[in-house]
Amino acid sequence: MSTRLQNGGRLIDRTQQVEFNWNGKRLQGFKGDTLASALLANDQMLVGRSFKYHRPRGIVAAGSEEPNALVALGKGGKYEPNARATTTELFDGLEAKSQNHWPSLEFDVGAVNKFMTPFFPAGFYYKTFIAPRFAWKHVFEPIIRKAAGLGPAPHPEDRDEDTYEYFYAHCDVLVVGGGISGLAAALQAGQSGAKVLMMEQESSVGGRAPVDGVEIGGKPAQDWIDATVKTLKSMSNVRIRMRTMGAGVYDHGYVLGYERLTDHAPKMTGPRHRLWRIRAKRIVTATGAIERPLSFAGNDIPGVILAGAVRDYAVNFGTSVGDRVVVATNNDDAYRTAIVLKECGLDVPAIIDARPVADGELPTKAREMGIRVETGKAISSVYGGKRVTSVGICSQAGEGTKTDEVDCDAVAMSGGWSPVVHLWSHCGGKLNWDTDLAMFRPDPMRPPLGAEGDGFVIATGTANGHLDAAAALADGFAAGDKAAAETGHKSVVKDAPVASAEAEAPMLAVWSMPQGQSKKLQMKTWLDYQNDVKVSDVRLAAQEGYESVEHTKRYTT
Protein backbone atom coordinates (compact mmCIF):
# COMPACT_ATOMS: atom_id res chain seq x y z
CA MET A 1 0.00 0.00 0.00
CA SER A 2 2.43 2.56 -1.29
CA THR A 3 0.26 5.65 -0.84
CA ARG A 4 -1.16 4.81 2.57
CA LEU A 5 -0.54 7.65 5.03
CA GLN A 6 1.22 6.97 8.31
CA ASN A 7 -1.57 8.68 10.23
CA GLY A 8 -5.30 9.11 9.78
CA GLY A 9 -7.93 6.60 8.79
CA ARG A 10 -10.76 6.94 11.29
CA LEU A 11 -12.80 4.22 9.55
CA ILE A 12 -10.09 1.59 9.03
CA ASP A 13 -8.55 -0.93 11.39
CA ARG A 14 -4.83 -1.08 10.65
CA THR A 15 -4.48 -4.26 12.72
CA GLN A 16 -6.67 -6.24 10.31
CA GLN A 17 -5.17 -6.54 6.84
CA VAL A 18 -7.46 -7.69 4.04
CA GLU A 19 -6.41 -9.26 0.74
CA PHE A 20 -8.40 -8.75 -2.46
CA ASN A 21 -8.05 -9.41 -6.17
CA TRP A 22 -8.01 -6.62 -8.77
CA ASN A 23 -7.76 -7.67 -12.43
CA GLY A 24 -5.91 -10.80 -11.39
CA LYS A 25 -3.48 -8.99 -9.07
CA ARG A 26 -3.46 -9.69 -5.34
CA LEU A 27 -3.54 -6.44 -3.37
CA GLN A 28 -3.91 -5.52 0.29
CA GLY A 29 -6.11 -3.15 2.23
CA PHE A 30 -7.48 -2.80 5.74
CA LYS A 31 -10.79 -3.71 7.33
CA GLY A 32 -13.01 -0.65 6.92
CA ASP A 33 -11.64 0.29 3.50
CA THR A 34 -13.84 0.64 0.46
CA LEU A 35 -12.61 -0.89 -2.77
CA ALA A 36 -11.89 2.64 -4.02
CA SER A 37 -9.80 3.65 -1.00
CA ALA A 38 -7.88 0.36 -1.17
CA LEU A 39 -7.15 0.84 -4.88
CA LEU A 40 -5.90 4.37 -4.23
CA ALA A 41 -3.78 3.08 -1.33
CA ASN A 42 -2.15 0.71 -3.83
CA ASP A 43 -1.56 3.63 -6.23
CA GLN A 44 -4.09 2.25 -8.73
CA MET A 45 -5.25 5.48 -10.35
CA LEU A 46 -6.62 3.97 -13.56
CA VAL A 47 -9.84 2.05 -12.84
CA GLY A 48 -11.78 1.94 -16.10
CA ARG A 49 -12.46 3.22 -19.59
CA SER A 50 -15.13 5.71 -20.57
CA PHE A 51 -18.34 4.70 -22.32
CA LYS A 52 -17.97 6.19 -25.78
CA TYR A 53 -14.32 7.15 -26.32
CA HIS A 54 -12.69 4.56 -24.01
CA ARG A 55 -10.64 7.30 -22.37
CA PRO A 56 -8.67 6.40 -19.22
CA ARG A 57 -10.79 7.13 -16.17
CA GLY A 58 -9.95 7.28 -12.48
CA ILE A 59 -11.89 7.64 -9.24
CA VAL A 60 -13.64 11.01 -8.95
CA ALA A 61 -15.76 10.83 -5.78
CA ALA A 62 -15.92 8.93 -2.50
CA GLY A 63 -19.61 8.00 -2.34
CA SER A 64 -22.65 6.96 -4.32
CA GLU A 65 -22.21 9.86 -6.78
CA GLU A 66 -19.13 8.20 -8.33
CA PRO A 67 -19.45 8.22 -12.17
CA ASN A 68 -16.24 6.43 -13.23
CA ALA A 69 -15.26 3.59 -10.92
CA LEU A 70 -17.94 1.10 -12.01
CA VAL A 71 -16.48 -2.38 -11.65
CA ALA A 72 -17.49 -6.02 -11.95
CA LEU A 73 -17.58 -7.98 -8.70
CA GLY A 74 -17.39 -11.73 -8.11
CA LYS A 75 -17.91 -14.48 -10.64
CA GLY A 76 -20.40 -17.18 -11.57
CA GLY A 77 -23.52 -16.99 -9.45
CA LYS A 78 -21.98 -14.14 -7.44
CA TYR A 79 -21.18 -11.95 -10.43
CA GLU A 80 -22.42 -8.35 -10.43
CA PRO A 81 -21.54 -5.73 -13.09
CA ASN A 82 -21.40 -1.94 -12.71
CA ALA A 83 -20.91 -1.83 -8.94
CA ARG A 84 -19.45 1.38 -7.55
CA ALA A 85 -15.99 0.90 -6.08
CA THR A 86 -16.65 3.83 -3.76
CA THR A 87 -19.55 2.11 -1.99
CA THR A 88 -18.19 -1.46 -2.11
CA GLU A 89 -16.84 -2.37 1.30
CA LEU A 90 -13.62 -4.37 1.25
CA PHE A 91 -13.56 -7.93 2.57
CA ASP A 92 -11.04 -10.73 2.44
CA GLY A 93 -11.20 -12.51 -0.91
CA LEU A 94 -13.09 -9.81 -2.80
CA GLU A 95 -12.71 -10.19 -6.56
CA ALA A 96 -13.09 -7.10 -8.75
CA LYS A 97 -12.41 -6.33 -12.39
CA SER A 98 -12.41 -3.17 -14.48
CA GLN A 99 -14.82 -2.89 -17.40
CA ASN A 100 -15.30 -1.61 -20.95
CA HIS A 101 -11.89 -2.42 -22.44
CA TRP A 102 -10.09 -4.99 -24.57
CA PRO A 103 -7.63 -6.65 -24.31
CA SER A 104 -6.60 -4.95 -21.04
CA LEU A 105 -7.23 -1.89 -18.91
CA GLU A 106 -3.82 -0.40 -19.61
CA PHE A 107 -3.96 -1.07 -23.36
CA ASP A 108 -7.44 -0.72 -24.81
CA VAL A 109 -7.99 -1.00 -28.56
CA GLY A 110 -11.24 0.95 -28.18
CA ALA A 111 -9.22 4.04 -27.27
CA VAL A 112 -8.89 4.64 -31.01
CA ASN A 113 -12.36 6.19 -30.70
CA LYS A 114 -10.80 9.33 -29.20
CA PHE A 115 -9.45 10.17 -32.66
CA MET A 116 -13.02 10.03 -33.96
CA THR A 117 -14.33 12.82 -31.72
CA PRO A 118 -14.78 15.26 -34.66
CA PHE A 119 -17.24 12.74 -36.12
CA PHE A 120 -19.13 12.19 -32.84
CA PRO A 121 -20.60 15.62 -32.01
CA ALA A 122 -23.84 16.07 -30.08
CA GLY A 123 -26.69 14.29 -31.85
CA PHE A 124 -24.43 12.55 -34.35
CA TYR A 125 -26.56 9.42 -34.25
CA TYR A 126 -29.71 11.33 -35.21
CA LYS A 127 -27.88 12.82 -38.17
CA THR A 128 -26.01 9.70 -39.25
CA PHE A 129 -28.33 6.73 -38.90
CA ILE A 130 -31.27 8.03 -40.94
CA ALA A 131 -29.75 7.21 -44.32
CA PRO A 132 -29.40 5.00 -46.20
CA ARG A 133 -32.40 3.29 -44.67
CA PHE A 134 -31.19 -0.29 -45.21
CA ALA A 135 -27.95 0.41 -43.32
CA TRP A 136 -29.66 0.76 -39.96
CA LYS A 137 -30.69 -2.88 -39.66
CA HIS A 138 -27.61 -4.42 -41.26
CA VAL A 139 -24.79 -2.02 -40.27
CA PHE A 140 -25.54 0.54 -37.56
CA GLU A 141 -27.78 -1.39 -35.18
CA PRO A 142 -25.50 -4.47 -34.82
CA ILE A 143 -22.50 -2.25 -34.11
CA ILE A 144 -24.37 -0.11 -31.58
CA ARG A 145 -25.82 -3.09 -29.74
CA LYS A 146 -22.40 -4.69 -29.47
CA ALA A 147 -20.87 -1.47 -28.13
CA ALA A 148 -23.68 -0.63 -25.70
CA GLY A 149 -23.22 -0.81 -21.96
CA LEU A 150 -20.18 -0.99 -19.70
CA GLY A 151 -20.04 -4.32 -17.89
CA PRO A 152 -21.35 -7.49 -19.56
CA ALA A 153 -24.57 -8.94 -18.19
CA PRO A 154 -24.38 -12.15 -16.12
CA HIS A 155 -24.34 -15.34 -18.17
CA PRO A 156 -27.79 -16.96 -18.38
CA GLU A 157 -26.44 -20.24 -16.98
CA ASP A 158 -25.01 -18.52 -13.87
CA ARG A 159 -28.09 -18.30 -11.68
CA ASP A 160 -27.98 -15.83 -8.82
CA GLU A 161 -26.87 -17.76 -5.74
CA ASP A 162 -28.16 -15.17 -3.26
CA THR A 163 -31.56 -14.77 -1.67
CA TYR A 164 -33.51 -11.57 -1.02
CA GLU A 165 -36.41 -10.51 1.17
CA TYR A 166 -38.75 -7.63 1.88
CA PHE A 167 -40.13 -6.12 5.07
CA TYR A 168 -43.13 -3.99 5.90
CA ALA A 169 -42.67 -1.25 8.47
CA HIS A 170 -44.78 1.53 9.96
CA CYS A 171 -43.51 4.55 11.86
CA ASP A 172 -44.45 8.06 12.85
CA VAL A 173 -41.24 9.66 11.65
CA LEU A 174 -38.84 8.30 9.05
CA VAL A 175 -35.42 9.98 8.95
CA VAL A 176 -33.41 9.37 5.77
CA GLY A 177 -29.76 10.17 6.38
CA GLY A 178 -27.48 9.80 9.40
CA GLY A 179 -25.45 12.99 9.30
CA ILE A 180 -25.55 15.38 12.22
CA SER A 181 -28.85 16.92 11.08
CA GLY A 182 -30.43 13.49 10.62
CA LEU A 183 -29.22 12.35 14.03
CA ALA A 184 -30.55 15.55 15.61
CA ALA A 185 -33.96 15.07 13.96
CA ALA A 186 -34.16 11.43 15.08
CA LEU A 187 -33.14 12.39 18.63
CA GLN A 188 -35.74 15.11 18.95
CA ALA A 189 -38.53 13.01 17.46
CA GLY A 190 -37.54 9.97 19.51
CA GLN A 191 -37.47 11.89 22.79
CA SER A 192 -41.01 13.07 22.10
CA GLY A 193 -42.22 9.46 22.11
CA ALA A 194 -42.74 9.19 18.35
CA LYS A 195 -41.96 5.89 16.65
CA VAL A 196 -38.82 6.63 14.64
CA LEU A 197 -36.96 4.75 11.92
CA MET A 198 -33.61 6.21 10.80
CA MET A 199 -31.84 4.94 7.67
CA GLU A 200 -28.23 5.62 6.69
CA GLN A 201 -26.83 4.29 3.41
CA GLU A 202 -23.20 4.17 4.59
CA SER A 203 -21.63 1.93 7.23
CA SER A 204 -21.04 4.84 9.61
CA VAL A 205 -23.04 7.86 10.74
CA GLY A 206 -22.04 11.48 11.16
CA GLY A 207 -21.67 12.54 7.55
CA ARG A 208 -18.96 15.10 6.82
CA ALA A 209 -18.79 16.61 10.31
CA PRO A 210 -15.93 14.41 11.63
CA VAL A 211 -14.02 14.80 8.35
CA ASP A 212 -14.28 18.58 8.36
CA GLY A 213 -13.16 18.95 11.97
CA VAL A 214 -16.51 20.25 13.25
CA GLU A 215 -16.94 20.76 16.98
CA ILE A 216 -20.31 20.36 18.71
CA GLY A 217 -20.73 21.76 22.18
CA GLY A 218 -17.04 22.57 22.30
CA LYS A 219 -15.99 18.95 21.69
CA PRO A 220 -15.10 16.99 18.54
CA ALA A 221 -18.19 16.13 16.52
CA GLN A 222 -17.44 12.41 16.86
CA ASP A 223 -18.02 12.62 20.63
CA TRP A 224 -21.51 14.07 20.14
CA ILE A 225 -22.25 11.55 17.36
CA ASP A 226 -21.26 8.59 19.55
CA ALA A 227 -23.31 9.88 22.49
CA THR A 228 -26.34 10.52 20.28
CA VAL A 229 -26.20 7.05 18.70
CA LYS A 230 -25.93 5.49 22.16
CA THR A 231 -29.00 7.42 23.30
CA LEU A 232 -30.99 6.48 20.20
CA LYS A 233 -30.14 2.79 20.58
CA SER A 234 -31.36 2.88 24.16
CA MET A 235 -34.84 4.04 23.07
CA SER A 236 -37.38 1.28 22.44
CA ASN A 237 -39.27 3.51 19.99
CA VAL A 238 -36.28 4.15 17.73
CA ARG A 239 -34.70 1.86 15.12
CA ILE A 240 -31.48 2.56 13.20
CA ARG A 241 -30.73 0.71 9.97
CA MET A 242 -27.25 1.06 8.51
CA ARG A 243 -26.32 0.40 4.86
CA THR A 244 -29.92 1.29 3.99
CA MET A 245 -30.76 3.75 1.25
CA GLY A 246 -33.99 5.69 0.89
CA ALA A 247 -34.83 4.69 -2.67
CA GLY A 248 -38.13 6.44 -3.31
CA VAL A 249 -40.91 8.53 -1.74
CA TYR A 250 -44.43 7.98 -3.04
CA ASP A 251 -48.00 9.02 -2.27
CA HIS A 252 -49.51 8.71 1.20
CA GLY A 253 -46.14 8.49 2.98
CA TYR A 254 -45.06 5.30 1.22
CA VAL A 255 -41.28 4.92 1.10
CA LEU A 256 -38.98 2.25 -0.32
CA GLY A 257 -35.73 1.47 1.47
CA TYR A 258 -32.93 -0.69 0.08
CA GLU A 259 -30.75 -2.45 2.66
CA ARG A 260 -27.48 -4.26 1.92
CA LEU A 261 -27.25 -7.04 4.51
CA THR A 262 -24.25 -9.22 3.62
CA ASP A 263 -22.38 -7.47 0.80
CA HIS A 264 -19.67 -6.45 3.26
CA ALA A 265 -19.45 -9.92 4.82
CA PRO A 266 -20.40 -12.62 2.28
CA LYS A 267 -19.68 -15.42 4.77
CA MET A 268 -22.72 -14.33 6.77
CA THR A 269 -25.80 -16.46 6.26
CA GLY A 270 -29.17 -15.09 5.29
CA PRO A 271 -30.51 -12.80 2.56
CA ARG A 272 -28.14 -10.52 0.69
CA HIS A 273 -30.47 -7.52 0.32
CA ARG A 274 -33.73 -6.42 1.89
CA LEU A 275 -36.43 -4.17 0.43
CA TRP A 276 -38.22 -2.06 3.04
CA ARG A 277 -41.82 -1.04 2.33
CA ILE A 278 -42.47 1.74 4.79
CA ARG A 279 -45.51 3.79 5.72
CA ALA A 280 -44.53 6.97 7.56
CA LYS A 281 -46.63 9.88 8.78
CA ARG A 282 -43.72 12.27 8.34
CA ILE A 283 -40.51 11.87 6.34
CA VAL A 284 -37.40 13.88 7.19
CA THR A 285 -34.88 13.97 4.35
CA ALA A 286 -31.40 14.59 5.73
CA THR A 287 -29.65 13.36 2.59
CA GLY A 288 -26.80 15.88 2.54
CA ALA A 289 -25.21 17.45 -0.54
CA ILE A 290 -22.85 16.39 -3.30
CA GLU A 291 -19.92 18.37 -4.59
CA ARG A 292 -19.96 19.68 -8.13
CA PRO A 293 -16.96 19.20 -10.41
CA LEU A 294 -15.42 21.94 -12.53
CA SER A 295 -15.05 21.72 -16.29
CA PHE A 296 -11.59 22.41 -17.65
CA ALA A 297 -9.48 20.84 -20.38
CA GLY A 298 -8.30 17.39 -19.28
CA ASN A 299 -10.56 17.24 -16.23
CA ASP A 300 -11.18 13.52 -16.82
CA ILE A 301 -7.54 12.39 -16.53
CA PRO A 302 -7.08 9.92 -13.64
CA GLY A 303 -6.02 11.90 -10.61
CA VAL A 304 -8.57 14.71 -11.03
CA ILE A 305 -10.82 14.18 -8.00
CA LEU A 306 -13.44 16.14 -6.08
CA ALA A 307 -11.87 18.12 -3.24
CA GLY A 308 -14.27 16.73 -0.65
CA ALA A 309 -13.43 13.19 -1.76
CA VAL A 310 -9.68 13.88 -1.44
CA ARG A 311 -10.39 14.97 2.13
CA ASP A 312 -12.50 11.87 2.79
CA TYR A 313 -9.80 9.51 1.59
CA ALA A 314 -7.16 11.21 3.74
CA VAL A 315 -9.20 11.47 6.97
CA ASN A 316 -11.45 8.40 6.77
CA PHE A 317 -9.06 5.93 5.14
CA GLY A 318 -5.56 7.35 5.61
CA THR A 319 -5.04 7.31 1.86
CA SER A 320 -3.28 9.88 -0.28
CA VAL A 321 -4.44 10.54 -3.83
CA GLY A 322 -1.07 12.10 -4.64
CA ASP A 323 2.10 13.57 -3.16
CA ARG A 324 1.62 16.95 -4.90
CA VAL A 325 -2.02 18.02 -5.13
CA VAL A 326 -3.18 21.22 -6.83
CA VAL A 327 -6.55 22.54 -5.63
CA ALA A 328 -8.94 24.24 -8.09
CA THR A 329 -11.98 25.97 -6.63
CA ASN A 330 -14.58 28.72 -6.70
CA ASN A 331 -15.39 28.55 -2.96
CA ASP A 332 -13.82 28.43 0.50
CA ASP A 333 -14.67 24.81 1.31
CA ALA A 334 -11.91 23.40 -0.91
CA TYR A 335 -9.35 25.17 1.26
CA ARG A 336 -10.19 22.62 3.96
CA THR A 337 -8.79 19.95 1.66
CA ALA A 338 -5.56 21.86 1.12
CA ILE A 339 -5.17 22.36 4.88
CA VAL A 340 -5.81 18.67 5.64
CA LEU A 341 -3.29 17.56 3.02
CA LYS A 342 -0.68 19.95 4.38
CA GLU A 343 -1.27 18.66 7.90
CA CYS A 344 -0.75 15.11 6.56
CA GLY A 345 2.71 16.11 5.34
CA LEU A 346 1.78 16.27 1.65
CA ASP A 347 2.64 19.07 -0.75
CA VAL A 348 0.03 21.50 -2.09
CA PRO A 349 1.89 23.45 -4.81
CA ALA A 350 -0.99 25.87 -5.41
CA ILE A 351 -4.65 26.67 -4.82
CA ILE A 352 -6.22 27.99 -8.02
CA ASP A 353 -9.19 30.13 -6.99
CA ALA A 354 -11.44 31.55 -9.71
CA ARG A 355 -12.62 34.35 -7.41
CA PRO A 356 -10.84 37.68 -7.70
CA VAL A 357 -10.46 37.89 -3.91
CA ALA A 358 -10.07 35.15 -1.28
CA ASP A 359 -9.39 36.60 2.15
CA GLY A 360 -11.67 34.64 4.48
CA GLU A 361 -10.71 32.59 7.50
CA LEU A 362 -9.83 29.44 5.56
CA PRO A 363 -7.80 31.14 2.77
CA THR A 364 -5.90 33.09 5.42
CA LYS A 365 -5.06 29.89 7.28
CA ALA A 366 -3.88 28.27 4.04
CA ARG A 367 -1.55 31.17 3.31
CA GLU A 368 -0.17 31.04 6.86
CA MET A 369 0.71 27.38 6.23
CA GLY A 370 2.80 28.46 3.25
CA ILE A 371 0.41 27.39 0.50
CA ARG A 372 0.51 29.46 -2.68
CA VAL A 373 -2.92 30.94 -3.43
CA GLU A 374 -3.63 32.22 -6.94
CA THR A 375 -6.85 34.27 -7.14
CA GLY A 376 -8.67 35.15 -10.34
CA LYS A 377 -7.00 32.17 -11.97
CA ALA A 378 -8.15 28.95 -13.61
CA ILE A 379 -6.75 25.68 -14.87
CA SER A 380 -6.24 26.00 -18.61
CA SER A 381 -5.41 22.33 -19.07
CA VAL A 382 -4.38 19.19 -17.23
CA TYR A 383 -1.44 17.29 -18.68
CA GLY A 384 -0.92 13.56 -18.54
CA GLY A 385 -2.24 10.35 -20.05
CA LYS A 386 -3.15 7.66 -17.54
CA ARG A 387 -2.44 9.97 -14.62
CA VAL A 388 -1.90 13.68 -13.95
CA THR A 389 1.61 15.06 -14.45
CA SER A 390 1.05 18.85 -14.33
CA VAL A 391 -1.49 21.63 -14.84
CA GLY A 392 -1.44 24.87 -16.77
CA ILE A 393 -2.70 28.06 -15.11
CA CYS A 394 -4.43 30.95 -16.86
CA SER A 395 -6.63 33.92 -16.03
CA GLN A 396 -10.25 33.01 -15.28
CA ALA A 397 -11.40 36.13 -17.09
CA GLY A 398 -9.11 35.59 -20.06
CA GLU A 399 -9.14 33.41 -23.14
CA GLY A 400 -7.36 30.49 -21.57
CA THR A 401 -3.79 31.33 -22.63
CA LYS A 402 -1.44 29.46 -20.30
CA THR A 403 0.64 31.74 -18.10
CA ASP A 404 2.23 29.18 -15.79
CA GLU A 405 2.64 25.42 -15.36
CA VAL A 406 2.73 23.56 -12.05
CA ASP A 407 4.01 20.02 -11.58
CA CYS A 408 1.61 17.81 -9.64
CA ASP A 409 0.22 14.27 -9.60
CA ALA A 410 -3.38 15.03 -8.61
CA VAL A 411 -5.96 17.80 -8.82
CA ALA A 412 -8.63 18.42 -6.17
CA MET A 413 -11.53 20.36 -7.70
CA SER A 414 -14.60 21.97 -6.18
CA GLY A 415 -17.40 23.80 -7.98
CA GLY A 416 -19.57 24.20 -4.88
CA TRP A 417 -22.22 21.94 -3.37
CA SER A 418 -25.71 20.88 -4.46
CA PRO A 419 -28.30 19.59 -1.93
CA VAL A 420 -29.51 16.04 -2.60
CA VAL A 421 -33.17 16.86 -3.25
CA HIS A 422 -34.32 13.73 -5.08
CA LEU A 423 -36.60 12.40 -2.34
CA TRP A 424 -38.06 15.87 -1.78
CA SER A 425 -38.91 16.07 -5.48
CA HIS A 426 -40.31 12.54 -5.88
CA CYS A 427 -43.79 13.55 -4.74
CA GLY A 428 -43.87 17.02 -6.22
CA GLY A 429 -41.80 19.11 -3.82
CA LYS A 430 -40.65 22.28 -5.58
CA LEU A 431 -37.25 23.94 -5.60
CA ASN A 432 -35.95 27.49 -5.45
CA TRP A 433 -32.76 28.75 -7.07
CA ASP A 434 -30.43 30.25 -4.46
CA THR A 435 -28.36 32.81 -6.34
CA ASP A 436 -25.88 33.41 -3.51
CA LEU A 437 -25.00 29.72 -3.12
CA ALA A 438 -25.66 28.81 -6.78
CA MET A 439 -27.85 25.84 -5.90
CA PHE A 440 -31.39 24.52 -6.07
CA ARG A 441 -32.82 24.07 -2.57
CA PRO A 442 -36.23 22.88 -1.30
CA ASP A 443 -38.98 25.50 -1.20
CA PRO A 444 -40.66 25.18 2.23
CA MET A 445 -43.77 26.92 0.88
CA ARG A 446 -44.29 24.23 -1.78
CA PRO A 447 -43.62 20.86 -0.11
CA PRO A 448 -44.83 17.45 -1.30
CA LEU A 449 -48.51 17.33 -0.31
CA GLY A 450 -50.23 14.38 1.34
CA ALA A 451 -53.80 13.18 0.95
CA GLU A 452 -55.07 15.87 3.35
CA GLY A 453 -53.14 18.65 1.64
CA ASP A 454 -50.42 18.77 4.28
CA GLY A 455 -46.69 18.64 3.66
CA PHE A 456 -45.49 15.19 4.72
CA VAL A 457 -41.81 15.58 3.72
CA ILE A 458 -39.45 17.84 5.68
CA ALA A 459 -36.01 18.62 4.25
CA THR A 460 -33.30 19.43 6.75
CA GLY A 461 -29.63 20.20 7.16
CA THR A 462 -27.39 20.32 4.13
CA ALA A 463 -30.18 18.79 2.04
CA ASN A 464 -32.13 21.95 2.89
CA GLY A 465 -29.31 24.20 1.69
CA HIS A 466 -27.58 24.83 5.03
CA LEU A 467 -23.96 24.22 4.16
CA ASP A 468 -22.34 25.20 7.49
CA ALA A 469 -22.46 22.76 10.39
CA ALA A 470 -24.05 25.15 12.90
CA ALA A 471 -27.07 25.89 10.70
CA ALA A 472 -27.39 22.24 9.61
CA LEU A 473 -27.45 20.99 13.21
CA ALA A 474 -29.98 23.58 14.33
CA ASP A 475 -32.16 22.79 11.32
CA GLY A 476 -32.04 19.09 12.20
CA PHE A 477 -33.36 19.70 15.70
CA ALA A 478 -36.09 21.97 14.29
CA ALA A 479 -37.11 19.29 11.76
CA GLY A 480 -37.35 16.68 14.53
CA ASP A 481 -39.52 18.99 16.61
CA LYS A 482 -41.80 19.72 13.67
CA ALA A 483 -42.17 16.06 12.67
CA ALA A 484 -42.96 15.05 16.25
CA ALA A 485 -45.56 17.77 16.72
CA GLU A 486 -47.27 16.98 13.41
CA THR A 487 -47.60 13.31 14.31
CA GLY A 488 -49.38 14.08 17.59
CA HIS A 489 -46.47 13.95 19.99
CA LYS A 490 -45.41 16.59 22.45
CA SER A 491 -42.32 18.24 21.10
CA VAL A 492 -39.32 18.15 23.43
CA VAL A 493 -37.75 21.55 22.96
CA LYS A 494 -34.32 21.73 24.54
CA ASP A 495 -31.32 23.92 24.03
CA ALA A 496 -29.56 22.18 21.19
CA PRO A 497 -25.76 22.03 21.27
CA VAL A 498 -24.09 24.53 18.98
CA ALA A 499 -21.75 23.39 16.23
CA SER A 500 -18.70 25.34 15.21
CA ALA A 501 -18.81 27.20 11.93
CA GLU A 502 -15.92 28.82 10.10
CA ALA A 503 -16.99 31.94 8.27
CA GLU A 504 -16.93 31.36 4.52
CA ALA A 505 -16.79 34.03 1.84
CA PRO A 506 -19.32 33.89 -1.01
CA MET A 507 -18.60 31.47 -3.82
CA LEU A 508 -18.34 32.47 -7.47
CA ALA A 509 -20.80 30.81 -9.83
CA VAL A 510 -18.18 29.33 -12.14
CA TRP A 511 -18.89 25.99 -13.82
CA SER A 512 -16.45 26.01 -16.71
CA MET A 513 -12.93 27.38 -16.78
CA PRO A 514 -11.38 28.95 -19.91
CA GLN A 515 -10.88 26.23 -22.49
CA GLY A 516 -7.81 27.52 -24.22
CA GLN A 517 -7.48 28.74 -27.78
CA SER A 518 -6.92 25.27 -29.19
CA LYS A 519 -9.88 23.29 -30.48
CA LYS A 520 -8.08 20.19 -29.27
CA LEU A 521 -8.32 21.45 -25.71
CA GLN A 522 -12.01 22.27 -26.11
CA MET A 523 -12.70 18.71 -27.20
CA LYS A 524 -11.32 17.47 -23.89
CA THR A 525 -13.39 19.62 -21.55
CA TRP A 526 -15.81 17.18 -19.96
CA LEU A 527 -19.16 17.76 -18.33
CA ASP A 528 -20.59 14.24 -17.93
CA TYR A 529 -17.89 11.67 -17.18
CA GLN A 530 -20.13 8.64 -17.34
CA ASN A 531 -21.67 9.36 -20.73
CA ASP A 532 -18.70 11.12 -22.36
CA VAL A 533 -20.45 14.46 -22.82
CA LYS A 534 -18.23 17.48 -23.44
CA VAL A 535 -18.94 21.13 -22.76
CA SER A 536 -18.77 21.68 -26.51
CA ASP A 537 -21.58 19.12 -26.97
CA VAL A 538 -23.90 21.11 -24.73
CA ARG A 539 -23.00 24.34 -26.51
CA LEU A 540 -23.72 22.72 -29.87
CA ALA A 541 -27.08 21.45 -28.61
CA ALA A 542 -27.98 24.97 -27.47
CA GLN A 543 -26.84 26.36 -30.82
CA GLU A 544 -29.09 23.88 -32.61
CA GLY A 545 -32.13 24.94 -30.63
CA TYR A 546 -32.35 22.50 -27.72
CA GLU A 547 -33.28 24.87 -24.92
CA SER A 548 -34.96 22.39 -22.56
CA VAL A 549 -32.45 20.64 -20.32
CA GLU A 550 -34.32 17.35 -20.87
CA HIS A 551 -33.93 17.66 -24.65
CA THR A 552 -30.28 18.68 -24.26
CA LYS A 553 -29.63 15.68 -22.03
CA ARG A 554 -30.91 13.23 -24.62
CA TYR A 555 -29.43 15.00 -27.61
CA THR A 556 -25.98 14.79 -26.02
CA THR A 557 -26.51 11.14 -24.88
What topology does this entry show?
Elements: E1 13-22, E2 25-31, H1 35-41, E3 46-49, E4 56-58, E5 70-73, E6 80-84, E7 95-97, H2 124-128, H3 133-147, E8 164-176, H4 180-191, E9 196-200, E10 215-216, E11 219-220, H5 221-234, E12 238-242, E13 244-250, E14 254-260, E15 273-285, E16 289-291, E17 304-306, H6 307-317, E18 325-329, H7 333-343, E19 351-353, H8 361-368, E20 373-375, E21 377-384, E22 388-395, E23 404-407, E24 410-414, E25 417-419, H9 422-426, E26 431-434, E27 439-442, E28 457-459, H10 469-486, H11 519-522, E29 526-528, E30 533-534, H12 535-543, H13 549-555
Parallel strand pairs: 1-7, 8-9, 8-15, 9-12, 15-28, 17-24, 18-19, 18-24, 19-20
Antiparallel strand pairs: 1-2, 3-4, 5-6, 5-7, 10-11, 13-14, 14-15, 16-25, 21-22, 22-23, 26-27, 29-30
Helix pairs in contact: 4-5, 4-10, 6-7, 7-8
Would you mind describing this structure in some detail?
The chain is an alpha/beta fold and 557 residues long. It has 13 helices and 30 strands. Strands 8, 9, 12, 13, 14, 15 and 28 form a seven-stranded mixed sheet that branches. Strands 2-1-7-5-6 form a five-stranded mixed sheet. Helix 7 links the parallel strand 18 (325-329) and strand 19 (351-353). Helix 4 packs parallel to helix 5 (221-234), helix 4 (180-191) runs parallel beside helix 10 (469-486) and helix 6 packs parallel to helix 7 (333-343). The radius of gyration is 24 Å and the shape is globular. It starts with 12 loop residues before the first strand and ends with a helix. The model is unreliable at 517-523 (pLDDT under 50).
